[in-house]
Specification:
CATH superfamily of the domain at 37-187 and 196-204 and 214-233 in chain A: ANL, N-terminal domain
InterPro entries (chains A, B): AMP-bd_C, AMP-bd_C_sf, AMP-binding_CS, AMP-dep_synth/lig_dom, ANL_N_sf, ATP-dep_AMP-bd_enzyme
Strand order of the largest sheet of chain A: 2-1-11-10-12-13-14
GO molecular function (chains A, B): ligase activity
CATH class of the domain at 37-187 and 196-204 and 214-233 in chain A: Alpha Beta
Enzyme class (chains A, B): ligase
Oligomer: homodimer
Helix content of chain A: 25-40%
Keywords (chains A, B): Ligase
CATH topology of the domain at 37-187 and 196-204 and 214-233 in chain A: Rossmann fold
Distance between the termini of chain A: 68 Å
Shape of chain A: globular
Structural class of chain A: alpha/beta
Largest sheet of chain A: 7 strands, mixed
Protein name (chains A, B): Fatty-acyl-CoA synthase
Strand content of chain A: 15-25%
Radius of gyration of chain A: 23 Å
Chain lengths: ~525, ~525
């Protein structure tokens, strides 16, 4: 019973049991490529052979800088099969950050989309020995992916790999300091894959067609590519720069049954599908993660578009899935209870443990009221960073998530804030998340963000930025009156600024760090709003 | 990410997330006890404390000789929590075999039902230091289970356990030689539990109420108790000697959604439910394992009783589950294809690998025709026996299952015979299983068994024994005419004997070994039938 747990087993499984299932590659809402797991398997073996020919040895890092497409999916398995570590690089990072990350990971090869090569210039200058492969063609100093596959013998004698060896690596952008690398062992990804396929979890199965909206550079695309391989689900990849209209069309055309995304993308998709009348009813599950969705979004998706919504909480350090918000069986015929449960981030996946730790290091009760920082541990939770010491991120082997949460008596997690997004005013905490949710509940508000601004007397005070809903006019005075009925008086923002858009992080969340900088830099001083 | 995989984690999970779910204990078709996972957890901790007080140390073996009841379920978790090994002993074995097994395993304690104490006399004489605990009361030299729990402090500081440490142990009765012990590590049971809860596998979930018909002394009751704990399914235990009428009533009363059993028990259940008009329609899955069911059984269950039927293949050495017969998605609306697939033993569970090896050690094609011995390996497949060398059972780390099978192009396994049940006549193989299936297809036949008898000229020849269907008359001459149209002429049994019943093994399968002995001993010489 000592067989190692290797994520590459799922490649062999897909070849043996699901040879005819399809991988479909879109580009701008049109099919660009369509092939089977049989072909996929054969190409992965040749790609792994090509990596060996390029000199890749067990333990080496191979970076990718690519959108969601079938070649990226081939790299997901070919790199670990070659015994190497798949290092997916966030394509929205600044060239300097990319150069830092590639240097820190000491990548031997980077496989990149041609359209993204410019972002690699600094990294290439820093690392002249690093080989560059273009997923969609050759160029100066750039090898051609297809030519490599064409020329390589299939890797039929993969190097021996231990289950604790790294299969993948991903850097978190973080909010302070340098990006931190999270290494994923074969074992961690293997167990995470089983968890993704549990009947009570995401329940990825052979009957699914999954659409990868989550970027493949982001925490293994939530691990869904591995889950699809293991279970024989069809996979659909939207290609570069998928627009909301493309996503809606793909879901309808391919009869997609499962997809996951951040709420901001879901808002765009919902608006698009509503406006164009695109049916999304093939979806058995739309899973929202990354940040809590508004009540409106969940209601619109479920009631108007007939799309069952779930939430998950996770983070790069958790491979990334930690919870899933499947409602209690007793809520099946109780719409209110069901909605209340899916509006939370859900219960912990089997295999993981958690704690809720208060200010003084004491464990808090799971009563749905007491708040604390969420700590987690388990076989797919990081207990260290790649080549860096970050003792502040761990406590006795537990990962400190930085999320402030409650856990209710049924075991449902609710993230109430990021530790660093809490606003400390006059010695008391103000929840920026609660303020944002109250603002978004106003019909004229599309999106909202609340950040702290330094204050001489109170230490910090809240500053709110809102984007109006389409065709709506958001008046700061109205919003303030609205908030007055919903939050403690001392929580009322000192200023509400109405803006056209909010800055996004590279994974599509609202970029609080950038916002804080912009606010501090006086960027919004001229914007109309309450002063 | 180095957290160990411990099956005791599921106990903590059940307490945290499913404290109110129920465990229900029946006796003779009536509720005998009903309590929650919260109470279960507390009693398990006290039981583990009691074991420590009795002197149980990490690695010690604790035997059980018990029916399916809540105290047995408590031992399932309390023994591993104490760091010890749960050794479930088959209560249908002869006292001499029980004494051998308890001696071989060197059990420190045995926990037994009072009604089964007689079977322990020889073992107790052999092992005077072995402590005996009665699940339902004290006696001479027998400690009382409830008194121990009452007196013991909860084990809140369980000993450290590594994932490769054994959590359980089970002996296979085997057909030759002494029983062999199969040890299950925490890791193996943990991974097997995840496999049991996959959406494409048994899919045990929080929405289930599972009924443990499979004896708890048999290969961890297929691992379903652990799966129920992990997922929060309610558990129902039928108690000692469950009659078919009891099982039918329990399913209807408790609205059981999932159960598994051997086909012979399912036949009785089906007849009982049909005769009494008991609705079994709460079942979302009735899983058959242990031996292939007849076509009639599957059809009657599905068409008349509206019970979805699945099959699994497994064995004690596979923890025990190896395959599951969920039909292909493409068969969902094709009743014929669906039926054909669930009549096979199904596809391999993720995490396992298999081979089909022919006579000369060559791998056979998976074409649904070529036959070979099934070899398996994986993280919950035995690669050795407990304290015994059996090199003949393993080939390069692969378990030799002794099952002769085909695998079709869709990946569905079909067991066509046990290696030792094949009949070699004139240098050619005759399949006893195929003959049995042809006989059972006759309306007058309830059950059939075919064994080899020694033959001077042909080496071996088939001998058939049939039990008539209820109220039917089975005439050997008719059966022979029936077979003549269905099997090769040289397969026709030399003799067909009509009998009232067939001997059973301790797990309810037809006991071919006993039958061969009886046939060779002339037991059926006086039985009417073709000579």
């Amino acid at each position: 019973m000592s067989t190692p747990l290797l994520v590459t087993d799922f490649l062999h499984r897909a070849r043996e049991f699901f040879p005819g299932r399809e991988i479909v590659q879109y580009r701008g809402g049109e099919t660009a490529h369509r092939y089977t797991y049989r072909d996929y398997h054969d190409r992965v073996l040749r790609l792994a052979g090509a990596l060996r020919e390029l000199g890749i040895r067990p333990g080496d890092r191979v970076a990718t800088l690519a959108w969601n497409h079938h070649r990226h999916l081939e790299l997901y398995l070919a790199v670990p099969l070659a015994g190497a570590v798949l290092h997916t690089v966030n394509l929205r990072l600044e060239p300097g950050e990319i150069a830092y990350i590639l240097g820190h990971a000491d990548d031997r090869v980077v496989v990149a989309d041609t359209s993204l090569l410019a972002a690699l210039e600094q990294a290439r200058a820093d690392r002249p020995d690093m080989l560059v492969v273009g997923t969609d063609g050759a160029g100066p100093g750039v090898l051609d992916y297809e030519a490599l596959i064409e020329a390589a013998p299939p890797l039929t004698d993969p190097p021996p790999v231990a289950e604790d060896d790294l299969a993948a690596l991903c850097y978190t952008s973080g909010t302070t300091g340098f990006p931190k690398g999270v290494g994923y062992s074969h074992r961690a990804l293997y167990l995470h894959t089983f968890a993704a396929c549990l009947a009570d979890g995401h329940a990825i199965s052979e009957r699914d067609t999954v659409l990868h909206v989550v970027p493949m550079f982001h925490a293994n695309a939530w691990g869904i590519p591995f889950a699809a391989l293991m279970s024989g689900a069809s996979q659909v990849l939207p290609g570069p720069h998928p627009a909301p209209a493309d996503l809606a069309r793909i879901i309808a055309t391919e009869r997609v049954t499962y997809t996951g995304m951040v709420p901001t993308v879901a808002v765009d998709l919902m608006r698009e599908a509503t406006a164009a009348g695109t049916g999304l009813d093939s979806l058995r599950a739309l899973v929202l993660g990354g940040s809590p969705p508004s009540e409106d979004l969940v209601r619109e998706l479920e009631e108007r578009l007939r799309v069952p919504v779930f939430q998950g909480w996770g983070m790069t350090e958790v491979s990334p899935m930690g919870t899933f918000s499947r409602p209690l069986p007793s809520s099946e015929h109780d719409a209110t209870a069901r909605r209340r449960q899916i509006r939370k981030q859900g219960r912990l996946l089997p295999g993981l443990r958690w704690r809720l730790v208060g200010d003084e290091g004491r464990d808090q009760p799971h009563d749905g009221v007491a708040r604390g920082e969420l700590l987690v541990r388990g076989p797919w939770v990081a207990s260290a960073y790649f080549r860096d010491e970050h003792p502040e991120c761990f406590t006795d082997g537990w990962l400190r998530t930085g999320d402030i949460a409650t856990i209710d008596p049924d075991g449902y997690l609710e993230i109430v804030d990021r530790a660093k997004d809490l606003i400390k005013s006059g010695g008391e905490w103000i929840s920026s998340l609660a303020l944002e949710q109250a603002l978004v509940a106003h019909p004229a508000v599309g999106e909202a963000a609340v950040v702290a601004v330094a204050h001489e007397r109170w230490q910090e005070r809240p500053f709110a930025l809102v984007v109006p809903a389409p065709d709506a006019v958001a008046e700061p005075a109205d919003l303030l009156a609205w908030l007055r009925e919903r939050v403690p008086r001392w929580w009322l923002p000192d200023r509400i600024a109405v803006v056209d858009a909010l800055p996004r992080t590279s994974v599509g969340k609202i970029d609080k760090r950038a916002l804080r900088d912009q606010v501090a830099g006086g960027l919004f001083d001229e914007v109309r709003g309450r002063t």
